[in-house]
Amino acid sequence: MTERGRFPEGLLDTCVLIDIDTVDDTRLPIQPKISTITVAELGLGVALAGSPEILTLRTEQMLEIEHVFDALPFTDTAARRFMTMANLIAVGGRNPKPRKMDLMIAAIASVNDLPLFTRNADDFRGLDQLLTVVPV
């Protein structure tokens, strides 16, 4: 961390990115990053918008996010890390299937040596050896 107590870089989970306007900047990394999985999740939110108003707002938010961030990809290395993480979750007695998108984002953070900033820190219990989780 920097002298100001903030991480220089970090990967934002989708839930943090969606709520970015309500999150205190001092709780975020100096240089936030996103993943291609987050872009896909946002696109799903656009596709499933329940009204023209929601569609318009989500589309605008997604276009702005795509303009501001270069998304980190889900690579072969990240896929292998995802499998390890899913196994650790299963060994810990939890089902990794409902968490698969979150675990894919976590795998991208892990292989890029980035902390993961999330509102759902409990979803990543048992992955401490592979991932730094920063609750927001």
From TrEMBL:
Query: What cofactor does this chain's UniProt record say it requires?
Result: Mg(2+)
Statement: the UniProt record of this protein carries the keyword Magnesium: yes
Key words of the record: Hydrolase, Magnesium, Metal-binding, Nuclease, Toxin-antitoxin system
The entry lists its GO molecular-function terms as: hydrolase activity; metal ion binding; nuclease activity
Source organism, top-level taxon: Bacteria
So what family is this one in?
Answer: Belongs to the PINc/VapC protein family.
What is the official name of this protein in its record?
Type II toxin-antitoxin system VapC family toxin
Taxonomic path: Bacteria, Bacillati, Actinomycetota, Actinomycetes, Mycobacteriales
